[in-house]
Amino acid sequence: MVRTRIIPCLQLIDNSLVKAVQFKKYSYIGDPVNTLRIFNELEVDELCFLDIRATLEQRTPNFEILRQIAEECFMPLSYGGGVKDAATAKKILSIGFEKIVINTAAFYNPTLISDIAAHSGSQSIIGSIDVRKNLLGKYQLYSHDGTKKEKINPVEWAIRLQELGVGELLLTSMDKEGTWNGYDMNITQIISDAVTIPVIANGGAGNITHIEDVLQKAHASAAALGSMVVYQKEGMGVLVNFPDKRELDKLI
User: Fold this and answer.
1) 232: domain range?
2) Catalytic: 130?
3) CATH code (residue 247)
4) Which of 14, 45, 115, 130 does the annotation list as catalytic?
5) 1 has a pLDDT exceeding 80
6) pLDDT score recorded for residue 190
7) What average pLDDT is seen over the chain?
8) CA-to-CA distance for 131 and 47, rounded, in angstroms?
9) What is the tens place of the pLDDT at every residue in 80-104?
10) Which backbone phi and psi does 134 adopt, to 5 degrees?
């Protein structure tokens, strides 16, 4: 049986690897190429790179660093950030990335998803959903690196992205991201149960139990890890690592 995917989700700002907490308080982690070399040795399932400021700063993807990453990486790669049109997506795929992560562009150019799907298939597109609770405890949808509130309900948007042709969803809890205190189980289960495509839970992982819970209790198809794989422990220094595969094998 194939083990459930556990995916390091790494944040870029242009050519630097960083880590945010709740979509702010960015800390420098290191060089992305050197970091992925370590993940090569750790034999992780796949890697996701997100240039978290590209859209806000109106930058195109840094193709040079993406080429370096693709040339060094031994596992499947996905990338998101600053992808506004199908030509940009196709260029990234041609470099050697297997999947494109689309967030903000989907709100303003939904045909982008169908254009990419027509060229490369739905399996090459990940629809990114960023959510946070308001003061009343209601989930709200955000774009532009969590700076712009969108009016559509997150569950409705997840269903819409599936209809548009994404192959899977990356669901990030802005409240939980970088906190080490576990995924948002509630919204993960709601969205996982509302769609038929895989949902990657993201934001909040701090230990193996958190991963197990989101997969088994919240019905996520895969788990993304951020702080857990770039720090020694909560509150400690940078150390690129990955959970013990013997522990992960128990999550099948």
Assistant:
1) 6-251
2) yes
3) 3.20.20.70
4) 130
5) no
6) 98
7) 95
8) 22
9) 999 999 999 999 999 999 999 999 9
10) -90, -175
